[in-house]
Amino acid sequence: MDVSNLPDAEDEERLRRLVLRLRFRHLQLLAALRKAGSLHAAAEVLHLTQPSLSKMLHEVEQAFGQQLFERGARGLKPTRSGDLAMHGAEMLLGELDRVSRELSVHPPQMLLRVGAPPFVAHSLMPQVLAALRGLSGDIRVELTEAGVPSLQRALLDGKLDALVTSFASDMSGAAGLKFERLYPTRVAVVAAVSNPLVGKRQISWATLAEQPWILPPRDSRVRRFLEDTFAQAGYVTPTPLIESSNPITNLRFVAAGLGIAAVPQECLRLVEAPEAIASLHLRRSLPEGTLALVYRTDGAHPRLKLFREALIQAGRHQAAI
């Protein structure tokens, strides 16, 4: 038995004292301060007076045995310990909210909170959730579609259990997160079939730079891939004619002849009128990506194990198509 992670007597005594002193309202105060940014704003959120909150904050600092905030003319400024305490409080409250919702249905069911950018949600999640349903009928799913930066923040804050997205090297340094690479993904550059570039070979990035583009936002992985490839070819990424975060919407714009777009290849199977668009043959392809499962390092839970297996099954299904 590995006892390296078991709490020693000193840790147990520290936790016992903390549990005796810390109250649920204290956690709410810390979370409100993190969200609102000031004692005055937190007082409005919690419907309490500032003197009451000041007293509660003093109680919180006594419970932890250290100063969490510096007081000054401009209000409170969290110390490093304060940042950790506020983040931890938000995590605990999020977990309590999840447990409450798991127990609110009859019979009780596990709740899995998953985040994914639109292209993953549209192209992969139907197969993943079908596989998950086959693995367990005792789990509910709450899917959040958004950009990766906001989803990553929600994951770190305990509002999501897992994130599925294209892996990028800059993500691997995120503290507190674990990344499991699943399978490769590619990005295609597409145009309406009426576009003169369709059917041509070895299209240069100089030619592509002259085209009207439909692009996702700057913080998206596809946009970063595109900007890196343009830069390597010696060109600046064109200012988009249309900027849209949804790849399915972007494919509709392409089909309407409004411009060319870079979209995850998996999305091409979801086009309503596939005969209206075509992939372009490029001299230099966009780099291959990797789909990854991202979760917190403290996220070991049966629901995550089931979700991982469902992802693997869906990946096999995708490969077979």
Any descriptors?
elongated; 12 strands; alpha/beta; 321 residues; 5-stranded mixed sheet
Summarize the helices and strands and which ones pair or pack.
Elements (H helix, E strand, L loop, with lengths): L8 H13 L2 H13 L2 H8 L3 H15 L4 E4 L2 E4 L1 H24 L6 E7 L1 H6 L1 H11 L3 E7 L2 H9 L5 E6 L9 E9 L1 E6 L12 H5 L3 E3 L5 H12 L9 E2 L3 H9 L4 E5 L12 E3 L9 E8 L5 H19 L1
Parallel strand pairs: 3-4, 3-5, 8-9, 8-10
Antiparallel strand pairs: 1-2, 5-12, 6-12, 7-10, 7-11
Measure the end-to-end span. Answer: 44 Å
Helix and strand string, N-terminal first?
A: HHHHEEHEHHEHEEEHEHEHEEEH
* Number of E-type strands: 12
Shape type:
elongated
Give the number of helices: 12
- The percent range for helix content is 40-55%
The secondary structure category is alpha/beta
Beta-strand portion reads: 15-25%
Radius of gyration: 24 Å
Q: Spans with pLDDT under 50 lasting ≥5 residues?
A: none
Mean pLDDT score, rounded?
Answer: 85
Strand numbers in spatial order across the main sheet: 4-3-5-12-6
Largest sheet descriptor: 5 strands, mixed
What's this, in brief?
This protein is of the alpha/beta class and 321 residues long. 45% of the residues lie in helices and 20% in strands.
Task: Describe the structure in your own words.
The protein is α/β, with parallel strands linked by helices. It has 12 helices and 12 strands. The strands form 3 sheets. It has a 5-stranded mixed beta sheet, with helices on both faces. Helix 10 (221-232) links the parallel strand 8 (213-215) and strand 9 (242-243). Helix 1 (9-21) runs antiparallel to helix 4 (50-64). The longest helix has 24 residues, at 80-103. It starts with 8 loop residues before the first helix and ends with a helix. The mean pLDDT is 85.
